[in-house]
UniProtKB/TrEMBL annotation:
Keyword Amino-acid biosynthesis among UniProt keywords: yes
A molecular function GO annotation: diaminopimelate epimerase activity
Keyword field contains Magnesium: no
Subunit record text: Homodimer.
Protein name: Diaminopimelate epimerase
Residues at the catalytic site: 82, 228
Source organism: Paramagnetospirillum marisnigri
Length: 288
């Protein structure tokens, strides 16, 4: 069997991915290999490495999803959720099948995705999880006020979208030194599995019919990225819980905007663009 591994380089609002299809043969990834592929100087370069794997099958042999998606940060760690990558993989699978909807299995659960036109995909990202144990936190806390902080980043809201987020509301998101503060908060002892750190600034009043929120992110295991889909979901939920926003808002990220809605049943709907940058074949040295 060929040892060549074709890849597709995709992105959602500049949050970029190397996507590998391991549905028909096994791919032997290690944290070292992931870091080598993700390295922007010597590898392909990406924020997350995404593997499409076969769907899980039940005892009767039928599958509940179209495919499984495995997600790895550029530091080699595996994570349960990635909103922007889910839209990208959904677009690939829908183009392949000709269908306008798809079900993707992730470590965080089954996600339903739908095409919303040319290069626009909506994903039901599942329930926003609000209990301290689900984030998880190291100790019992009201997740609406975690009470920690450094500099301008104080008293975040804690949310899990399948991955942990701490959303800090600030007056001016663009002036926050995320390169310095992000890693300190990511590794705060309150977060035993670390956390993604969001600096969010309200651009509309609480009673606006549609909210607008500026958000910048320091991603766990990756660093600053142009956009974070789960971070955008967490930001809208945090703002709605604090009474700062209606339950639907445009989240303005460095790479563009996502529309996020916190539905009455607690699920979070994310709608945004996908793009393919280029494709190629991995240099075999990256997998050796
Ligand atoms: N870019 C992603 C989130 C990727 C995972 C995150 N860094 C984590 O460690 O939880 C997104 O679009 O949601």
């Amino acid at each position: 069997m060929s040892t060549d591994w074709p890849f597709v380089k995709m992105h959602g609002l500049g949050n970029d991915f190397v996507v590998l299809d391991a549905r028909s043969r096994a791919l032997d990834l290690t944290p070292e290999r992931i870091r080598a592929i993700a390295d922007r100087r010597t590898g392909i370069g990406c924020d997350q490495l995404v593997v499409i794997a076969p769907p899980q099958t039940g005892s009767n042999g039928s599958s509940v999803s179209d495919a499984t998606m495995l997600i790895h940060n550029s530091d080699g760690s595996e994570v349960a959720a990635c909103g922007n990558a889910t839209r990208c993989v959904a677009a690939l699978l829908m183009a392949e099948s000709g269908s306008d909807s798809v079900v993707i299995e992730t470590r965080a659960g089954l996600l339903d995705a739908e095409s919303r036109g040319e290069r626009l995909v909506a994903v039901d990202m599942g329930l926003a999880r609000l209990d301290w144990r689900e984030i998880p936190l190291a100790e019992a806390k009201d997740t609406l006020h975690l009470g920690i902080g450094i500099g301008p980043l104080v008293d975040p809201v804690g949310i899990s979208m399948g991955n942990p987020h701490a959303v800090f509301f600030v007056d001016d998101a663009d002036s926050v030194d995320l390169t310095r503060l992000g890693p300190q908060l990511e590794h705060h002892p309150l977060f035993p599995e670390k956390a993604n750190i969001e600096a969010a600034q309200m651009l509309t009043p609480p009673d606006a019919p549609l909210g607008r929120i500026r958000m910048r992110v320091w991603e766990r295991g990756t660093g600053i990225t142009m956009a974070c889909g789960t971070g955008a979901c967490a930001t809208l939920v945090a703002a709605a819980r604090r009474g700062l926003s209606p339950r639907k808002a445009e989240i303005v990220l460095d790479g563009g905007s996502l529309t996020i809605e916190w539905l009455p049943d607690g699920h979070v709907l994310m709608t945004g663009p996908v793009a393919t940058a280029f494709s190629g074949v991995l240099d075999p040295s990256l997998l050796s």
